[in-house]
Amino acid sequence: MQISRREFLKAAGSASILTLMGCGIGKKVNRQPNILFIMSDDHAYQAISAYSNHLISTPNIDRIARNGMKFTNACVTNSICAPSRATILTGKHCHIHGKVDNLFPFDETQTTFPQIMQEKGYQTAMIGKLHFGNNPKGVDDFMILPGQGNYLNPTFITQAGNVEKEGYCTDIITDLTLEWLEKKRNPEKPFLLMYLHKAPHRPWWPRADKMAEFVSRKFPEPATLFDNYQNRGAAAPSAEMNLLYHMKYGHDSKIRPEVQKAMAPLEPNIPPFIWGGVDGFSAAFNRATEDQKNQYQPTLDKINQDFQENWPKMTMEEKMRWKYQRYMQDYLACIASVDDNVGRVLDYLEYNNLTDNTIVIYTSDQGFYLGEHGWYDKRFIYDESFKTPLLVQWPHKVKAGSVCHEMVQNLDFAQTLLDAAGIEAPNDMQGESLVPLLKGKNKKWTRDAVYYHYYEFPGEHTVKRHYGIVTKDYKLAHFYYDVDQWELYDRKRDLHEINNVYNDPSYAEIVRKLKKQLSDLRIKYGDSHELDQKYLTQYLEKLKQ
Fold it and tell me: How far apart are CA 361 and CA 419, in angstroms?
């Protein structure tokens, strides 16, 4: 059961007094900082008001930016869930740790940064979504979702076996996190606590009250909602991420199975999203208790009535707009719950005098399309999926309200946290510590370009295999396997990345320099054409199985 903010703060304040009494008021604070690593799944930077307030207000996540540093060019090495998480844990590119896509296994011989911190005396815990493996390495305590997990009444994997919790996943993950801080944290040790949300991953099921609140809202459309993909290569128009044609009516838009069946003769593009032998709507909704279903029914009635009454009369353009609004209503409602719950944890740190010696990081496993280019999902090297939010609060070390524009990656997180803890990182990690940037020592930062590689094709959403290099000014990508195409974007002049200037003679010298730099990066990180072919061959073999 949720308690009010006033009740929580009162309880947290009492807990603070008890904690101080138990530890001794004059006791020396741990020299090594505590680390609270908060990560959501598919949380677009466009949906954090510290970056832009045109869609939603996220006052609690914004607190981290206001009290610390906001990175505007944070990005990922591979925009897909499990590979991104493996990169964060190991500080290595996907072709090294083996988790190149959601199908390939993680190389269990790899060392993760929680293992190192655990060995060096940190108390470690992981709560929420990991997405791969059922026994996370280097954590003293864990409660993780199996695979993607569920929004309603989720199951958790623990050392003692599986447990099911009744309620809404975002709230429950936070309850478990606060319980760990209150009951399991050893005040004699610094801690690494990984607080990992499932939300706002597809299919977007908000909490019932949030769904009711957001369903009547209307959101501004992105400039490229009706992108026609001119001046691009074959990859963009062939991707299956279009809101109108590929977003499922039940699974995503919450259209009931019986309504889909009745409307099917009028709309040939209404196949249900089948999951475990049932349609996508029922797969999620059937997990709800009767009381929970009753809470959702009025909002679902409203959605389905609107669909039945208006859909047959809509033009294709109007249908696209309807799908976009339905998407934003649920996606942003999920984020509203994340923001509320992040606030609960930040409040706990504050009222238990943990803020001063705790680094707080907020990020996502990658970005996400919120209708830009007519898309949802991720995968591409284009900004909306390539960039990721990164906010870091570190009292007395990071200047409040500071902003960093350097090219940083999730590849850097492991080394950064080890460095902040005063622990030497292994030589085989491939990132760079962000600590100099966090402390405002930008002259010590030498990287001017990052490397990206996406592998999962042919596969879900049919985004072609590609690798590339990105600087502050330019983005060069090579799409390969069934095509051999290059794309170049001027990031300063073409903010929406809709004009491929690779064949423009005025950019010929830039292409030459970037290709050389890209080749150097592939050598530096140990990637190669031979590895491309190896992973492609193995992937095609797995698809046959």
Answer: 15
- Per DSSP, helices labelled H in 152-270 are 169-179, 208-214, 235-238, 243-246, 257-263
pLDDT at 95: 97
CATH class of 5-20+34-204+335-437: alpha beta
Q: What is the pLDDT of residue 134?
A: 66
Nearest to 325 by CA among 246, 224, 236, 216: 216
Give the single-character DSSP code of 161: E
Ranges under pLDDT 70 in the chain:
1-30, 134, 268-269
Percent of the chain with pLDDT over 70: 94
pLDDT tens sequence across 321-330: 999 999 999 9
Q: Any idea of the CA torsion for 183, 189, 190, 191, to the nearest 10 degrees?
A: -40
Q: What is the DSSP letter of 365?
A: S
Q: How many CB atoms lie within 10 A of CB 25?
A: 8
The neighbour count for residue 427, using CB atoms within 10 Å, is 5
Strands (E), 448-484: 450-454, 466-470, 474-479
Evaluate the CA torsion angle 93, 98, 101, 105 in order and state its sign. negative
Give the ranges where 215-315 is alpha helix by DSSP (H).
235-238, 243-246, 257-263, 280-285, 290-310
Residue from 273, 152, 282, 298 nearest 213 by CA: 298
- CATH 3.40.720.10 region(s) of the chain? 5-20+34-204+335-437
C-alpha span between 114 and 423 (Å, rounded): 12
Amino acid at 313: K
**Predicted local distance difference test score (pLDDT) of residue 272:** 76
pLDDT digits (tens, 9 = 90+) for 170-187: 999 999 999 999 999 999
Q: Where in the chain is the domain with CATH 3.30.1120.10?
A: 452-544
> Could you tell me if 77 and 87 are in contact, meaning their C-beta atoms sit under 8 angstroms apart?
yes
Query: Residue 254 in contact with residue 281, Cβ under 8 Å?
Result: yes
Q: What is the dihedral of CA 419, 421, 425, 429, to 10 degrees?
A: -70
pLDDT at 3: 47
* Beta strand 274-275 pairing with 191-196: unpaired
Instruction: Give phi and psi for 308, each to the nearest 5.
Output: -65, -40
At 257-278, the pLDDT tens digits run 999 988 888 776 677 788 777 8
Evaluate the omega torsion of the peptide bond into residue 83 and state whether it is cis, within 30 degrees of 0.
Answer: no
The reported pTM is 0.93
Question: Could you say which architecture CATH assigns to the domain 452-544?
Answer: 2-Layer Sandwich (3.30)
Q: What would the two tokens of residue 80 be? A: 């897909």
Distance separating alpha carbons of residues 112 and 37, to the nearest angstrom: 14
419 contacts 444 by C-beta, under 8 angstroms: no
| Positions of E strands within 242-366 | 274-275, 278-279, 358-364
| pLDDT reported for residue 23 | 38
pLDDT score recorded for residue 11: 46
